[in-house]
Write a structure and sequence with these properties.
This protein has 89 residues and is an alpha+beta fold. Helices cover 38% and strands 18% of the residues. It contains one helix and three strands, in the order βββα. β2 and β3 form a beta hairpin.
């Protein structure tokens, strides 16, 4: 099995039909044929998508909490001190 990474951001996720074949289109770069997918497989896909949405919501909430704590402490941003060193010519 090979693994590849794909980032689609907020690009559309849609179903496409060509003749008697059905595809799940994710962004511009990924198209998965689901013509022969069983109902169980599609239910599993829906469960995974729901789990992923829950995970992302948790990440957003955690980031919001960090922002709120920083705001309560009077911080506008968190930064790391940086000192310039010599630059090679």
């Amino acid at each position: 099995m090979s693994t590849f990474n794909l980032s689609w951001g907020d690009r559309p996720i849609v179903l496409e039909t060509e003749g008697n074949r059905t595809f799940l289109r994710i962004g511009a770069a990924l198209r998965i044929e689901v013509t022969d997918a069983s109902v169980d497989q599609l239910d599993q896909l829906a469960e995974v998508a729901a789990d992923l949405a829950d995970y992302q919501q948790d990440r957003y909430r955690a980031a919001d909490v960090a922002d709120e704590v920083a705001a309560e402490d009077g911080l506008r941003s968190i930064s790391v001190p940086f000192k310039r060193g010599p630059v090679a010519a």
